[in-house]
Amino acid sequence: MKFQSYPNTFVSHVSLIVTDIKRSLSYYKDIIGFQVLNETSQKAILTADGITPLLTIEQPENVSAKQQRTTGLYHFALLLPNRSDLGSVLYHFLQIGYPLQGASDHLVSEAIYLADPDGNGIEIYADRPSNTWKWENGQVSMTTERLDAESLLAEGQGKTWKGLPKETVMGHIHLHVSELKKTEEFYCKGLGFDVVTRYGGQALFISTGSYHHHIGLNTWNGIGAPTPNENSVGLRWFSLVLPNEAKRLEVTEQLQKIGASVDNENGTWITRDPSGNTIHLLVI
């Protein structure tokens, strides 16, 4: 997973608010195939390899249901190491009869879409080889076409589903935002991402290292969509891994120059985008 490693800046960990921790933990273990790294009565940290945290689910004391038409999570995306792994996952969902929300061929990748019991969006995908991606003037060609499920299932045939492969990483995150101009400034001038695809005036996709996207940003919940309540179901925060401490200091200065704040809260560097999405800035 070369695009989710040094020297790129990439998403590594997503934290979600859920209404029922027991129900969500069962879902993420039995349906999605995570392992539990750490667990308390109200919080669980989940992993694919038994070492690396990928997803945190938490039930706050005063949790409220998911709010509609707000900023926040559209989906988080788990990147599998091989196409055959995606075929195995698809077969698993078909076997247990779990409803999917979509299945698409994006040219650069193939993806399955679903949602957890609280409506948090999930993408599970496999990339096509990067040397097959088509670039023109710094923009990568992405589209949404019908997934060739038959071919995918054939490739996964004989590969028994045993949960998420240990090489699974957090491939990207896709966010609802309130507008795109200030958002683009924050993520590109501030955090140092490049725009690699624009969908009219409603969505843009950004990355480092010429990935097809580490972050998707859209206004599909409406221009001026409000930030959700603090403890409503959805995104609590996500983390970005920066290549080194010097880069984190550089990014901090860039963010401050455009009027964004960066705070050190108990050793964690935290910023918030113009739509209120919380980001942890990590160096590993």
Automatic annotation (TrEMBL):
Residues 10-127, 169-284 form the VOC domain. One of its GO terms (molecular function) is metal ion binding. The keyword Disulfide bond does not apply. Keywords: Metal-binding. It holds the Pfam family Glyoxalase. Signal peptide: none annotated. It comes from the Bacteria. InterPro entries: Glyas_Bleomycin-R_OHBP_Dase, Glyas_Fos-R_dOase_dom, Glyoxalase_1_CS, VOC_core. This is VOC family protein.
